[in-house]
Every structure is written in C-alpha cells, then in structure tokens.
Amino acid sequence: MRLFKILRLVTAGFTLSALLAALLVTFAVTMPAEARIVVDVNRGHADPLPIAITDLVGSESDIISGGSVKNYGQRIALVIKANLTRSGLFHSVDSEAFIRSGTVEGNLRNPNFNNWKAIGAHALMNGSISLQEDGRLKVEFRLWDVLGANQMTGLRYFTSPKNWRRIAHLISDAIYKRMTGESGYFDTRVVYISESGIATKRVKRLAIMDQDGHNHTFLTNGKNLVLTPRFSPTAQEITYLSYHNDDPRVYLYNIDSGKQEILGDFPGMTFAPRFSPDGNKVIMSQAYKGNSDIYVMELRTRKIKQLTRHTAIDTSPSYSPDSRYVTFNSDRGGSQQIYVMESSGKNIKRISFGKGRYSTPVWSPRGDLIAFTRQYQGKFYIGVMRPDGSGERLLSESFLDEGPTWSPNGRVIMFFRQQPYDNKGRGGETQLWTVDLTGYNERQVITPLDASDPAWSPLIR
Amino acid sequence: MLEKMNSVKYWALIGSALLLSACANTNTGTVPDTPTEPVAVETEEPVVASPPETVDVETVMEDPATQSSLDMASGNSVAYFGYDRYDLSSDARAALQAQAAWLQTHAAVKITVEGHCDERGTREYNLALGDRRANSVKNYLVALGVDPSRIHTVSYGKERPAVTGSGEAAWAKNRRSYTRVN
Question: Exposed (0-12), middle (13-18) or buried (19+): which is A109, by Cβ within 10 Å?
C-alpha cells in the first residue's frame, strides 16, 4: 500500500516537472497530398537525407542567463543537427553553404526553395525564438519539403529557458516522425552505471543523462556496488541491483525523491530485474542455494510468483510489450541459450540455435524483435532475432559487447563495449555505444567516466 | 633458560662485560692522570647473592582465527574453477579440505564464501554462475563436517576480479571462490 502512494505521487510530480508546462500548438500544417520525401528507417545508411537546419532567428539584445535569445536559437539548432545526424538517417547540409547562397535571411514563412535546392537540401527546418514577458521562451519551427515546395509540419513551444535542450529534442522528434512515419527517441534519458578505478576495485555508480549525454547526474555515491539499472515504462523509477550491506538485492529508486527501497524479502540474491510493460510488476531472478530461477513481483501487493523451477540457471527475463510472453536466458539445454515462455511460466521454448552462447534477451518495444548478446569463438556480438528465433542478424562485434537496450521506437540499440586489457594491465576502457537496426550506424555515447549497463527510458511525456 | 645458567658462566659474562668497558676507555684518546684500578677486584658484594627471578614465557605465536591464518593454512583461501564450470577439481578439493581442517580447529569462526567469474560472460549470467560456485564450495565444506550455519555465500559475478588482464592466465585466476573470515 505504501508503494502505491509513492507511485501516485511520482505520477503527479512527473506531470508538473517533465511537461515543461509547455503549451504545444500545431499550426498551419499543410499536408501535401503525396509526401515527396520519405525516409526509410530500414536503409538509413544508404543515402541519408540532406536537411538544412537553420539557426532559430532571435533577438541579440534580449539576454537570458547564459546568453542572448539569438544564441539560444543557435544552440537549439546545433542540438537538433547532432540528434538527426546521429540517427544516421539525415545528413545536415553544411551551414557554410547557407551563407554562400545567402539563404539564411528571408521570410521564415516563405522560403526561397530554389536557393535551398541549389545547395542540395531536400528538407529545410527554420524557425524563431523569442523571450516572453512571463520569462518563458517561445520557440517555433517549420519543416519544409524543398523539392515539393510546401510545409510538412510546424509547431510552437513555450517553456522556461533552462528547458531549452528539451525543446531541441522535441523538435528533433517531430522532424524524425514527420520524415520517417515513426516516433522519435530524442526526448529520452538513459540510466547507466558509471565506472571508475582499477578492475579489481572498480567503483560503480548509478547515473542518468539525456540520450545525447547532456544533463548528466550521478544518483549514487559509489559506496555500494550497483549494477543493471532499468527504467520504469510508466514512472520516474529505476529498478537495479545493489550490494548494500554486501547483500546483493533488487532495489527500486525513485528519481524525483532519491528514495531507495529493497524489493521483497528473498532468502537468496535477487538480480536481473526488469519492469513489466505496464510498470506494475518487476520480473527478476533469485539465486538460492546455487540455483537461479525467475520470479515476478506485483509492486502494489508485493506478491511474489515463481515462474521457472529448474536446476539450470534461469535469468535475464524480459516481457514482450503485450505482456503475454517472457524471454529469458537459460543453460538448461547444456549451454546458455534464449528461451520464450508464456508469462505464466508455461510452454517454455528455446528460440536460439546458432553456434556459441546467447544471453541477455531484451524484447523490442515494437514487439517484432528480441535483441541479445552472443558469444562465439572468443568474440561478443549484439544481434537481433524474431521472437520465434528466425531472422537472426548480428549488428556489432568486439572483444566484449554486452547488454543491449532499445530506443523507445525500437530502431536503435544501445549497449556497452569493454576493451581488452593488455599484458601490463592497461586497457579495459568501457563505453556506451549505439547501433541502429541496419548495423551500419555505430556511434559512441560520450560519458564523463567509463560506462556500462545502459537502459533507455521511454519517451518523456 | 636464564635460571639454568650456572654461576661460572655468569661470572664469565660479567668479566667479559667489564673487559669490554675497559677496552672502550682506551679508545677515548685521553690519557688518565692516575692509572685506573682494576674494577673487578673492587667488587665487594658478589651478585650471586640474589639469584635472578624466574621469567614466565608464553608463546604469542598461537594460531589466531584471522584471515591471514586461514590464508596460510589453505593456499590463500581460494579454490579455482574451469570456464563456465562450478564442479570441484581435485586441486580445488584439496584446497577446500585444508580450509575445512582449519575451520574444525577454529570452531567459532564464521565465513563468507565468495563466488567469482572471469570477464568472459554476461553480467547477469555470471552473477548466477558465481552463486553456483559459492554454493558448490559451501556444500563441500558441509560434507567435510563444517556446520552450514557458519557459512554465508555471496556472488560477485565478474565484478571483483583477483587480477587485471584479458587472457587465459588472468581468467583462470579470476574463476574462483574466496573464503572470507567474517
């Protein structure tokens, strides 16, 4: 009952803080009968779409903390450019070209399409930024189909200046959605484990940041070893493993309040936690007397149900987005493989049959794929397969790649990569990486220290 | 030993000490005005009148119930495992037999058996594997007569390697159990 109260409070706090108190107005959206430009997310590497992102036009004399309004307009454009470029689906047309062609100035509502066409842009984003009397920023943008000479979308946002990065992410999401037909993933956060120190005495801290690495915050001080955080799909909560009192157990962390609580009173180690898609349950493993099985806990009632009973290791459970199935990792067949069962624990079926070991299955939020870690002949791979085990594709390869997590639109996977140590004990650098489903767009996510165990948040609402 | 020293030896000791101090004097570089009289002859009261008190000696090297004692008795309190294995090799059994023997003679000691893995596995699977290893060790110690209530287990998976390195030599050292005296 206590937890229920907490959850409700969280929801209330979330609505107030996270929504930027933003009024979001759609205006003047002229939808062309036939969209001329469409970005295919499945072949993003082939020919990224050239888009011109212009600085938002703003006053140089209006000063807010950190710079002029004009300067904020430039910074927002930079964040949008970085987001869209990182997706691999867009190519940001060089802003030097804007100046040469004299296309920066001009009527925001009536761009000279021929000028933009001349510098190779297929799409154009322009807009403006201003400071209102109530101290909030007003930001509006329009997305134009240069070849078709019409507006594709346009939105206006109001928010406090300190939220300017979220505006950039929301605009990025709007552009991505209009161009690809799929939801974006830029207005999201990542919780992960920040690592420092030598391998034998590694210090690990829970940390959170925007998906592009900004707004970084440490959530724990490193006193206790912490591992494998996962975002709640519905609340500002994280479930993770902590070695508090040298007793590894699954905990719940409330991001807004900083409150941490242990989940359940298990006699053995609990680990590998993950939320159910409705956020009401946490599924996890318990290791008791040398045997690991899968359990699920109802968060409101704290009722626990055991789902697997086998002498093998059963771990890394992950729900399908419709909650009907659970995929997990087991060595019941003699080596680590991926299995799928009904969420009641019935009808357990093995789905991975390739060579080597398969582990860490994570169901895509779209439901169409399961991401995994595969070990084969001394290398680690991140890959995807359909829930029936067909269509396996490997997306990354290295000495040690591990721990995939999905972007909320199911198009990008983040994971961590550890470099090997050399014979002098140097190396071992551990970093976060993203790769899209094409496998061609692999990029490092910059973090202040070493990083592992990433978990992508749902879209912030 | 001291009390057994006979008076002859004792006197010899005193005599040589005095001789040494006399020699030391000649090394000071200053010539005394009057010749020094032989000191030993001047001694009026022989020391033999009060024999030395006996000294009770106790050993301070008793075997204490410490980690270093267990480490010394059992090859650093570790047992090693094969890759992705949790069964006990004959070497591991021998090491654990030494631990069990030590635990029998230190019956009040409680221990924590840590299970560890090398880096060649995913984090969550390795936590489960470390738990298997720790419990393998616990079960064997219990079979050798150690009370199970004295043994706590904890798995660190691949989080606390004993050595830093990426190669079979390092990995073999990291696939281990470690018995910690609480």
Answer: exposed
Q: How many CB atoms lie within 10 A of CB A459?
A: 18
User: Which 3 state secondary structure label does DSSP give A247?
Assistant: coil
Count of pairs with CB atoms under 8 A, one residue in A, one in B: 102
Q: Is the pLDDT of residue A268 over 70?
A: yes
Q: Give residue B23's pLDDT.
A: 43
CA distance B171 to B165: 7
Which pLDDT band holds residue A384 (cuts at 50, 70, 90)? very high
And the tokens for B3? 């009390």
| Nearest-CA distance B153 → chain A (Å) | 9
Q: What pLDDT is attached to residue A219? A: 96
Distance of alpha carbon A402 from alpha carbon A150, whole angstroms: 45
Residue of B154, B161, B162 lying closest to A248 (CB–CB)? B154
The pLDDT tens digits of the residues spanning B21-30 come to 444 444 444 4
Are A152 and A272 members of one domain?
Answer: no
B7, pLDDT greater than 70: no
User: What residue ranges in A19-149 does DSSP mark as E strands?
Assistant: 24-26, 49-53, 63-64, 67-68, 90-92, 123-131, 137-145
State the smallest CA–CA distance between residue A272 and chain B in angstroms: 6
Q: Are the Cβ atoms of A289 and B161 closer than 8 angstroms?
A: no
Residue that the structure tokens 């100035």 belong to: A105
Distance from B136 to chain A by nearest Cα, in Å? 7
Residues A236 and A121 in one domain: no
Count: domains in chain A: 2
The predicted model gives A178-186 an average pLDDT of 95
Chain A contact for B159 (CB, 8 A cutoff): yes
Please indicate whether, in this complex, the C-beta atoms of B127 and A248 are within 8 angstroms of each other: yes
B36 lies within 8 A of chain A by CB: no
By C-alpha distance, the chain A residue nearest B169 is A423
User: Per-residue pLDDT averaged across A339-361, rounded?
Assistant: 97
Tell which of A149, A180, A211 closes a domain.
A180
Domain co-membership, A288 together with A357: yes
Nearest by CB to A329, which of B125, B162, B163? B125
Assigned CATH for B67-181:
3.30.1330.60
- Partner-chain contact A418 B119, CB within 8 Å: yes
Domain boundaries, chain B: 2-49, 67-181
**Which CATH number belongs to the domain containing residue A136 in this structure?**
3.40.50.10070
Indicate if A257 and A292 belong to the same structural domain: yes
Lookup result for tokens 């198009």: A411
Q: pLDDT band for position B46 (50/70/90)?
A: low
Of B112, B128, B164, the CB nearest to A313: B128
Residue predicted with more confidence, A439 or A76: A76
Whether residue A304 sits in one domain with residue A211:
yes
Q: What does pLDDT average to over chain A?
A: 89
pLDDT in tens, B61-94: 667 889 999 999 999 999 999 999 999 999 999 9
Alpha carbon of A287: minimum distance to chain B alpha carbons (Å)? 6
Tens of pLDDT, residues A48-75? 999 999 999 999 999 988 899 999 999 9
| Cβ distance of A315 and B124 shorter than 8 Å | yes
Identify the domain containing residue A148 by its residue range.
Answer: 23-180
